[in-house]
Design brief:
The chain is of the alpha/beta class. Helix content is 41%, strand content 19%. The strands form four sheets. The chain has an eight-stranded parallel beta sheet. A three-stranded antiparallel beta sheet has the order 1-2-3. It has a three-stranded antiparallel beta sheet with strand order 7-8-9. α7 runs parallel beside α8 and α14 runs antiparallel to α15.
């Protein structure tokens, strides 16, 4: 059964240390979930993802529904068995992916009609069907179907969107049958504090879920707006439930939002950046194609314990990337995922020691790169 235990709060800020118990194991929070949109963390085998320190991954309902189909996965014994991953899985409802289809979808009171990005076929997903699909996948944490509020949106547009999300949340909870799977409600409301407060009241107090996600951010709004809405919303959510910030995941965003009381993060940044040659270290962000690394025999990060840093030089990584070798994606992804896992270790240690504010200030003072739009889609 799903349980969340709040272990400690840092007295200097809102940072929280916790532990989530699921059928497939425990998760230490704050946690970062590598994204496995289609049942795989791109370029890595599941055993490697686990060895890198990942305690939980995120898979996507929309993509797995379209291909290979949730019934096929159910027949195979569920997503854990299908993809050979024994640890916890969170599945997004597909609301963000449907939102991203733009003109290829039509939102109704009872669900969403959309055109497949694969073959153009038409589909309809209701809140109940989204739960049914996730039940078939057998994820440890399911998400309610919601409407991701676009940016920019007027107050009236955001208010209408929020009303739909609240209605779908009620229907999602009513459709849930499997008590072994947790269900999270999603807080929408755009960039409007009044609507965010209303969403917290409706979703957490009037309906009630196993955990709560802050959605509708990292969709094009200024970074300051994202941070402001997160700082406003997170402390209003129940203390005894996990808090999840959907799709925001630069190292800087994670460090800032842990301070606000966020427990869970996901983003494609470590894997997508790895495939494009942007590599994270404790001292810099390395664009590996740059000529300065052509004859650099030093490891990517001398402080990192990952397989890549223990065995290969920057010069070799640059050679692989410039030659478009598949191994470049593998080695880069190993390092970036391990960097994020080590970052979460450092975050949890700082909270445990009661020095998170100091850690945050020091980390952000040394940050010099802002990465563009974040997302949960790989």
């Amino acid at each position: 059964m799903f349980q969340f235990k709040l272990l400690k709060k840092d007295a200097s800020c809102g940072a929280r240390l916790g532990r989530i118990h699921t059928t497939h194991g425990e998760i230490n929070t704050p946690v970062f979930m590598p994204v496995a949109t289609q049942g795989t963390v791109k370029s890595l085998i599941p055993e490697t993802v686990r060895d890198l320190g990942a305690e939980m991954i995120l898979a996507n309902t929309y993509h797995l529904y379209l291909r290979p189909g949730h019934e096929i996965i159910k027949k195979a014994g569920g997503l854990h068995k299908f993809m050979n991953w024994s640890a916890p899985i969170l599945t997004d409802s597909g609301g963000y992916q449907v939102y991203s289809l733009g003109a290829f979808r039509e939102i109704k009171d009872d669900g969403v009609i959309f055109k497949s990005h694969i073959d153009g076929s038409m589909h309809f997903i209701s809140p109940g069907l989204a739960i049914e699909i996730q039940a078939a996948l057998g994820s440890d944490i399911m998400m309610c179907l919601d409407e991701c509020t676009a940016y920019p949106a007027s107050f009236q547009e955001a208010e209408k969107s929020l009303a739909l999300t609240v209605n779908w949340a009620r229907r999602s909870k009513a459709a849930k049958k499997n008590h072994g799977q947790a269900l999270f409600g999603i807080i929408q409301g755009g960039i409007y504090p009044e609507l965010r407060l209303r969403a917290v009241e409706d979703i957490s107090k009037n309906i009630g879920f196993d955990g709560y996600a802050i959605g509708g951010l990292s969709v094009g709004e200024p970074k300051e707006e994202m941070l402001s809405i997160t700082q406003l919303t997170a402390p209003l959510l129940p203390d005894d439930k996990p808090r999840y910030l959907m799709g925001a995941g630069t190292p800087e965003d994670i460090v800032a939002c842990v301070d606000y009381g966020i427990d869970m993060f996901d983003c494609v940044i470590p894997t997508r950046c790895a495939r494009h040659g942007l590599l994270f270290t404790n001292h810099e962000k390395v664009v590996i194609k740059n000529a300065q690394y052509r004859d650099d025999d030093s490891p990517l990060d001398g402080t990192c314990d990952c397989y890549t840093c223990r065995n290969y030089s920057r010069a070799y990584l640059r050679h692989l990337f410039m030659a478009k070798e598949i191994l470049a994606m593998v080695l880069n992804t190993i390092h970036n995922v391990r960097y994020f896992m080590r970052l979460m270790d450092r975050i949890r240690a700082a909270i445990r020691d009661g020095r998170y504010k100091e850690f945050k200030n020091s980390f952000l003072a040394g940050s010099n790169t802002v990465i563009g739009q974040q997302t949960s889609i790989e």
